[in-house]
Amino acid sequence: MIYRYSRHLLLPDFGVEGVLGIVDGDDVELNNLHRQIIHQEAYIGRSKVKSAADTCPLNYHRYDIVVDATDNLPTRYMISDCCVLLNKPLISGAALGLEGQLTVYHHNGSPCYRCLFPNPPPVAACQRCSDSGVLGVVPGVIGCLQALEAIKVASDVGEPLSGRMLLFDALSARIRIVKIRGSSPTCTVCAENSVFTQEDFQKFDYETFTQSPMSDKTAPSLNLLPESARITCTEYKGLIDKGEPHVLLDVRPAHHFQIVSLSRSLNIPLSILEEKLPMLETSMKETMDASATSDKQPSLYVVCRRGNDSQSAVQLLREKGFHSAKDIVGGLQSWAHDVNPDFPAY
Questions:
Q1: Which residues are part of the catalytic machinery?
Q2: pLDDT in tens, 63-90
Q3: What's the whole-model pTM score?
Q4: Which InterPro entries does the entry link to (predicted)?
Q5: Beta-ladder partners of 167
Q6: 91 and 197 housed in the same domain
Q7: Is 46 contained in some domain?
Q8: Is 89 exposed, middle or buried (0-12, 13-18, 19+ CB in 10 A)?
Protein backbone atom coordinates (compact mmCIF):
# COMPACT_ATOMS: atom_id res chain seq x y z
CA MET A 1 0.00 0.00 0.00
CA ILE A 2 2.94 2.37 0.63
CA TYR A 3 4.21 1.96 -2.94
CA ARG A 4 0.70 2.36 -4.32
CA TYR A 5 0.33 5.77 -2.65
CA SER A 6 4.02 6.72 -2.67
CA ARG A 7 3.57 9.79 -4.91
CA HIS A 8 0.91 11.03 -2.51
CA LEU A 9 3.01 10.32 0.56
CA LEU A 10 5.98 12.25 -0.85
CA LEU A 11 4.05 15.48 -0.26
CA PRO A 12 5.27 16.79 3.09
CA ASP A 13 1.88 18.16 4.24
CA PHE A 14 0.11 14.79 4.19
CA GLY A 15 0.46 11.95 6.66
CA VAL A 16 0.55 8.19 6.40
CA GLU A 17 -2.38 7.17 8.59
CA GLY A 18 -5.93 7.07 7.25
CA VAL A 19 -9.00 4.85 7.01
CA LEU A 20 -11.76 4.85 4.40
CA GLY A 21 -15.28 3.65 5.13
CA ILE A 22 -18.35 3.47 2.90
CA VAL A 23 -22.01 3.47 3.95
CA ASP A 24 -24.62 2.77 1.27
CA GLY A 25 -27.84 0.77 1.60
CA ASP A 26 -28.31 0.44 -2.17
CA ASP A 27 -27.40 -2.29 -4.66
CA VAL A 28 -25.34 -1.86 -7.82
CA GLU A 29 -27.43 -1.17 -10.94
CA LEU A 30 -26.33 -1.03 -14.57
CA ASN A 31 -27.30 2.65 -14.80
CA ASN A 32 -24.85 3.46 -11.97
CA LEU A 33 -21.77 2.45 -13.91
CA HIS A 34 -21.43 5.55 -16.12
CA ARG A 35 -20.53 7.63 -13.07
CA GLN A 36 -19.86 5.30 -10.09
CA ILE A 37 -16.62 3.88 -11.40
CA ILE A 38 -15.80 1.97 -8.23
CA HIS A 39 -18.34 -0.71 -9.30
CA GLN A 40 -18.10 -3.33 -12.05
CA GLU A 41 -20.75 -5.18 -14.07
CA ALA A 42 -20.01 -8.38 -12.18
CA TYR A 43 -21.49 -6.75 -9.05
CA ILE A 44 -24.84 -5.72 -10.56
CA GLY A 45 -27.59 -6.61 -8.09
CA ARG A 46 -25.17 -6.90 -5.18
CA SER A 47 -24.51 -4.54 -2.28
CA LYS A 48 -22.66 -1.35 -3.19
CA VAL A 49 -20.74 -1.57 0.08
CA LYS A 50 -19.57 -5.10 -0.76
CA SER A 51 -18.63 -4.04 -4.29
CA ALA A 52 -16.65 -1.03 -3.05
CA ALA A 53 -14.96 -3.06 -0.30
CA ASP A 54 -13.78 -5.63 -2.86
CA THR A 55 -12.41 -2.85 -5.06
CA CYS A 56 -10.82 -0.88 -2.19
CA PRO A 57 -10.11 -3.07 0.84
CA LEU A 58 -11.49 -1.24 3.90
CA ASN A 59 -10.71 -1.30 7.58
CA TYR A 60 -13.76 -0.43 9.63
CA HIS A 61 -13.05 1.70 12.60
CA ARG A 62 -13.82 5.16 13.82
CA TYR A 63 -13.97 7.94 11.27
CA ASP A 64 -13.16 11.62 11.72
CA ILE A 65 -14.73 13.01 8.53
CA VAL A 66 -17.96 12.22 6.68
CA VAL A 67 -18.36 12.65 2.91
CA ASP A 68 -21.97 12.91 1.72
CA ALA A 69 -22.56 11.90 -1.90
CA THR A 70 -26.26 11.05 -1.56
CA ASP A 71 -28.97 12.36 -3.86
CA ASN A 72 -32.04 12.78 -1.69
CA LEU A 73 -33.23 15.34 0.83
CA PRO A 74 -34.10 13.22 3.91
CA THR A 75 -30.70 11.53 3.85
CA ARG A 76 -28.91 14.88 3.58
CA TYR A 77 -30.71 16.21 6.66
CA MET A 78 -30.06 12.97 8.53
CA ILE A 79 -26.33 12.88 7.75
CA SER A 80 -25.90 16.55 8.66
CA ASP A 81 -27.71 16.13 12.00
CA CYS A 82 -25.63 13.06 12.78
CA CYS A 83 -22.39 14.93 12.04
CA VAL A 84 -23.42 17.75 14.37
CA LEU A 85 -24.21 15.34 17.21
CA LEU A 86 -20.90 13.50 16.73
CA ASN A 87 -19.02 16.75 16.04
CA LYS A 88 -17.70 15.59 12.67
CA PRO A 89 -17.01 17.81 9.64
CA LEU A 90 -19.20 17.00 6.66
CA ILE A 91 -17.95 17.24 3.06
CA SER A 92 -21.20 17.63 1.12
CA GLY A 93 -21.45 17.42 -2.66
CA ALA A 94 -24.33 17.29 -5.12
CA ALA A 95 -24.58 16.82 -8.90
CA LEU A 96 -27.56 17.05 -11.20
CA GLY A 97 -27.76 17.44 -14.93
CA LEU A 98 -24.73 19.51 -15.93
CA GLU A 99 -24.17 21.27 -12.62
CA GLY A 100 -22.70 20.47 -9.23
CA GLN A 101 -21.97 22.07 -5.88
CA LEU A 102 -19.75 21.43 -2.90
CA THR A 103 -19.22 22.78 0.62
CA VAL A 104 -17.90 21.75 4.03
CA TYR A 105 -20.51 21.83 6.80
CA HIS A 106 -19.93 22.03 10.55
CA HIS A 107 -16.24 22.85 10.40
CA ASN A 108 -14.40 25.92 11.68
CA GLY A 109 -17.61 27.85 12.28
CA SER A 110 -19.31 26.88 9.05
CA PRO A 111 -23.06 26.16 9.16
CA CYS A 112 -24.71 22.77 9.19
CA TYR A 113 -27.22 21.82 6.51
CA ARG A 114 -30.14 22.88 8.72
CA CYS A 115 -28.62 26.33 9.25
CA LEU A 116 -29.01 26.99 5.53
CA PHE A 117 -32.25 25.08 5.09
CA PRO A 118 -34.21 25.06 8.37
CA ASN A 119 -37.30 24.05 6.41
CA PRO A 120 -37.13 21.61 3.50
CA PRO A 121 -38.00 22.98 0.05
CA PRO A 122 -41.24 21.95 -1.69
CA VAL A 123 -41.20 18.39 -3.00
CA ALA A 124 -41.69 19.67 -6.57
CA ALA A 125 -38.40 21.58 -6.31
CA CYS A 126 -36.38 18.51 -5.34
CA GLN A 127 -34.92 16.55 -8.24
CA ARG A 128 -32.99 13.31 -8.35
CA CYS A 129 -30.60 11.86 -10.89
CA SER A 130 -33.08 9.05 -11.53
CA ASP A 131 -35.68 11.61 -12.63
CA SER A 132 -33.71 14.43 -14.23
CA GLY A 133 -30.49 12.70 -15.23
CA VAL A 134 -26.84 13.60 -14.73
CA LEU A 135 -23.88 13.69 -17.12
CA GLY A 136 -21.48 11.03 -15.82
CA VAL A 137 -18.42 13.28 -15.62
CA VAL A 138 -20.16 15.87 -13.40
CA PRO A 139 -20.37 13.69 -10.24
CA GLY A 140 -16.83 12.60 -11.14
CA VAL A 141 -15.63 16.21 -10.94
CA ILE A 142 -17.57 16.91 -7.74
CA GLY A 143 -16.44 13.62 -6.19
CA CYS A 144 -12.78 14.41 -6.87
CA LEU A 145 -13.20 17.83 -5.30
CA GLN A 146 -14.91 16.23 -2.29
CA ALA A 147 -11.95 13.88 -1.92
CA LEU A 148 -9.62 16.89 -2.06
CA GLU A 149 -11.61 18.72 0.63
CA ALA A 150 -11.57 15.62 2.84
CA ILE A 151 -7.78 15.39 2.50
CA LYS A 152 -7.40 19.09 3.34
CA VAL A 153 -9.62 18.81 6.42
CA ALA A 154 -7.92 15.61 7.58
CA SER A 155 -4.45 17.06 7.08
CA ASP A 156 -5.32 20.54 8.31
CA VAL A 157 -3.73 22.15 5.24
CA GLY A 158 -4.93 24.78 2.82
CA GLU A 159 -8.32 26.48 2.95
CA PRO A 160 -11.26 24.06 3.05
CA LEU A 161 -14.62 25.21 1.73
CA SER A 162 -15.91 26.05 5.19
CA GLY A 163 -18.35 28.94 4.97
CA ARG A 164 -18.02 28.86 1.20
CA MET A 165 -19.78 26.93 -1.54
CA LEU A 166 -18.28 25.87 -4.85
CA LEU A 167 -20.65 25.96 -7.84
CA PHE A 168 -19.65 24.03 -10.97
CA ASP A 169 -21.20 24.64 -14.40
CA ALA A 170 -20.03 21.96 -16.85
CA LEU A 171 -21.44 23.65 -19.97
CA SER A 172 -19.54 26.89 -19.48
CA ALA A 173 -16.57 25.24 -17.73
CA ARG A 174 -16.94 27.78 -14.92
CA ILE A 175 -16.36 27.35 -11.20
CA ARG A 176 -17.66 30.00 -8.80
CA ILE A 177 -17.05 30.24 -5.08
CA VAL A 178 -19.75 32.01 -3.09
CA LYS A 179 -19.74 32.91 0.57
CA ILE A 180 -22.45 31.37 2.77
CA ARG A 181 -23.51 32.51 6.19
CA GLY A 182 -21.98 31.02 9.31
CA SER A 183 -23.62 28.76 11.87
CA SER A 184 -27.08 30.06 12.76
CA PRO A 185 -27.66 30.98 16.43
CA THR A 186 -31.26 29.78 16.04
CA CYS A 187 -30.50 26.42 14.41
CA THR A 188 -32.49 23.67 16.10
CA VAL A 189 -29.59 21.22 15.87
CA CYS A 190 -26.20 22.96 15.99
CA ALA A 191 -26.96 26.20 17.91
CA GLU A 192 -25.29 26.56 21.30
CA ASN A 193 -28.63 26.29 23.11
CA SER A 194 -29.95 23.41 20.96
CA VAL A 195 -31.69 20.62 22.86
CA PHE A 196 -31.53 18.14 19.98
CA THR A 197 -30.14 14.88 21.38
CA GLN A 198 -29.04 11.53 20.02
CA GLU A 199 -32.33 10.10 21.26
CA ASP A 200 -34.19 12.79 19.28
CA PHE A 201 -32.10 11.90 16.24
CA GLN A 202 -32.96 8.22 16.46
CA LYS A 203 -36.68 8.98 16.70
CA PHE A 204 -36.78 11.72 14.05
CA ASP A 205 -38.73 10.80 10.90
CA TYR A 206 -36.74 12.42 8.10
CA GLU A 207 -38.99 11.17 5.32
CA THR A 208 -42.05 12.74 6.95
CA PHE A 209 -40.13 15.95 7.66
CA THR A 210 -39.10 16.37 4.01
CA GLN A 211 -42.21 14.74 2.51
CA SER A 212 -39.96 12.65 0.28
CA PRO A 213 -38.53 9.11 0.42
CA MET A 214 -34.89 8.22 0.99
CA SER A 215 -34.96 5.92 -2.03
CA ASP A 216 -36.80 6.35 -5.32
CA LYS A 217 -37.48 2.61 -5.11
CA THR A 218 -39.77 3.25 -2.15
CA ALA A 219 -41.40 6.37 -3.58
CA PRO A 220 -45.17 6.00 -3.32
CA SER A 221 -47.12 5.86 -6.56
CA LEU A 222 -49.92 8.30 -7.16
CA ASN A 223 -53.45 7.00 -6.95
CA LEU A 224 -55.53 9.66 -8.68
CA LEU A 225 -57.96 7.53 -10.68
CA PRO A 226 -60.67 4.94 -10.03
CA GLU A 227 -59.93 1.38 -11.09
CA SER A 228 -62.32 1.78 -14.02
CA ALA A 229 -59.95 4.38 -15.50
CA ARG A 230 -56.87 2.17 -15.28
CA ILE A 231 -55.52 -0.90 -17.03
CA THR A 232 -52.50 -3.10 -16.24
CA CYS A 233 -49.64 -3.64 -18.67
CA THR A 234 -50.61 -7.30 -18.99
CA GLU A 235 -54.18 -6.34 -19.88
CA TYR A 236 -52.93 -3.80 -22.41
CA LYS A 237 -50.69 -6.46 -24.01
CA GLY A 238 -53.78 -8.68 -24.37
CA LEU A 239 -55.64 -5.88 -26.20
CA ILE A 240 -52.71 -5.49 -28.60
CA ASP A 241 -52.71 -9.22 -29.29
CA LYS A 242 -56.45 -9.09 -30.04
CA GLY A 243 -55.90 -6.22 -32.47
CA GLU A 244 -58.23 -3.79 -30.67
CA PRO A 245 -58.21 -0.39 -32.44
CA HIS A 246 -56.78 2.21 -30.07
CA VAL A 247 -54.44 5.13 -29.67
CA LEU A 248 -51.49 4.88 -27.29
CA LEU A 249 -50.52 8.30 -25.94
CA ASP A 250 -47.07 8.66 -24.38
CA VAL A 251 -46.92 11.78 -22.19
CA ARG A 252 -43.21 11.69 -21.33
CA PRO A 253 -40.93 14.58 -22.34
CA ALA A 254 -39.74 14.38 -25.95
CA HIS A 255 -36.15 13.51 -25.02
CA HIS A 256 -37.42 10.60 -22.91
CA PHE A 257 -39.49 9.40 -25.86
CA GLN A 258 -36.35 9.39 -28.01
CA ILE A 259 -34.62 7.05 -25.56
CA VAL A 260 -37.19 4.28 -25.96
CA SER A 261 -40.91 3.94 -26.70
CA LEU A 262 -43.62 1.40 -27.37
CA SER A 263 -44.50 0.69 -30.98
CA ARG A 264 -46.95 3.08 -32.68
CA SER A 265 -47.27 5.37 -29.68
CA LEU A 266 -48.00 9.08 -30.06
CA ASN A 267 -45.82 11.41 -28.01
CA ILE A 268 -47.41 14.53 -26.57
CA PRO A 269 -45.61 15.63 -23.36
CA LEU A 270 -47.88 16.26 -20.39
CA SER A 271 -46.61 19.85 -20.15
CA ILE A 272 -48.14 20.73 -23.53
CA LEU A 273 -50.96 18.18 -23.66
CA GLU A 274 -53.83 20.65 -23.32
CA GLU A 275 -52.64 22.83 -26.20
CA LYS A 276 -51.97 19.80 -28.40
CA LEU A 277 -55.39 18.17 -28.00
CA PRO A 278 -56.22 18.82 -31.70
CA MET A 279 -53.28 16.56 -32.61
CA LEU A 280 -54.74 13.83 -30.42
CA GLU A 281 -58.19 14.30 -31.94
CA THR A 282 -56.69 13.88 -35.41
CA SER A 283 -54.94 10.68 -34.37
CA MET A 284 -58.16 9.31 -32.86
CA LYS A 285 -60.05 10.09 -36.07
CA GLU A 286 -57.40 8.48 -38.28
CA THR A 287 -57.49 5.35 -36.12
CA MET A 288 -61.28 5.20 -36.32
CA ASP A 289 -61.25 5.68 -40.12
CA ALA A 290 -58.72 2.88 -40.50
CA SER A 291 -60.70 0.51 -38.30
CA ALA A 292 -63.07 -2.12 -39.68
CA THR A 293 -65.62 -0.89 -37.13
CA SER A 294 -65.27 2.77 -38.11
CA ASP A 295 -68.50 3.72 -36.33
CA LYS A 296 -66.94 2.94 -32.95
CA GLN A 297 -64.69 5.42 -31.14
CA PRO A 298 -61.24 3.84 -30.59
CA SER A 299 -59.95 3.38 -27.07
CA LEU A 300 -57.33 5.77 -25.70
CA TYR A 301 -54.56 4.51 -23.41
CA VAL A 302 -51.99 6.74 -21.74
CA VAL A 303 -48.49 5.70 -20.68
CA CYS A 304 -45.52 7.40 -19.02
CA ARG A 305 -42.32 6.23 -17.37
CA ARG A 306 -43.68 5.12 -13.98
CA GLY A 307 -47.44 5.57 -14.10
CA ASN A 308 -47.78 8.93 -12.33
CA ASP A 309 -47.85 11.54 -15.12
CA SER A 310 -50.16 9.30 -17.11
CA GLN A 311 -52.76 9.53 -14.34
CA SER A 312 -52.60 13.31 -14.39
CA ALA A 313 -52.98 13.18 -18.16
CA VAL A 314 -56.05 10.93 -17.95
CA GLN A 315 -57.65 13.33 -15.48
CA LEU A 316 -57.12 16.20 -17.91
CA LEU A 317 -58.28 14.21 -20.93
CA ARG A 318 -61.50 13.10 -19.26
CA GLU A 319 -62.23 16.69 -18.26
CA LYS A 320 -61.78 17.67 -21.91
CA GLY A 321 -64.19 15.05 -23.23
CA PHE A 322 -61.89 12.07 -23.90
CA HIS A 323 -63.99 9.78 -21.72
CA SER A 324 -62.38 6.57 -22.99
CA ALA A 325 -58.92 7.58 -21.75
CA LYS A 326 -57.31 5.05 -19.43
CA ASP A 327 -54.01 5.02 -17.57
CA ILE A 328 -51.58 2.12 -17.99
CA VAL A 329 -50.61 1.23 -14.41
CA GLY A 330 -46.90 1.47 -13.63
CA GLY A 331 -45.95 2.82 -17.03
CA LEU A 332 -42.99 1.60 -19.04
CA GLN A 333 -41.23 0.29 -15.95
CA SER A 334 -44.09 -2.14 -15.36
CA TRP A 335 -44.08 -3.04 -19.07
CA ALA A 336 -40.40 -4.03 -18.78
CA HIS A 337 -41.05 -5.93 -15.54
CA ASP A 338 -44.35 -7.68 -16.32
CA VAL A 339 -44.53 -7.99 -20.09
CA ASN A 340 -41.22 -7.66 -21.89
CA PRO A 341 -38.03 -8.14 -19.80
CA ASP A 342 -35.97 -7.15 -22.88
CA PHE A 343 -37.60 -3.73 -23.05
CA PRO A 344 -34.84 -1.21 -22.19
CA ALA A 345 -36.12 0.43 -19.00
CA TYR A 346 -34.16 3.44 -17.80
A1: 129, 304
A2: 889 999 988 899 999 999 999 999 999 9
A3: 0.73
A4: Rhodanese-like_dom (IPR001763), Rhodanese-like_dom_sf (IPR036873), ThiF/MoeB/HesA (IPR045886), ThiF_NAD_FAD-bd (IPR000594), Ubiquitin-activating_enz (IPR035985)
A5: 101, 176
A6: yes
A7: no
A8: buried
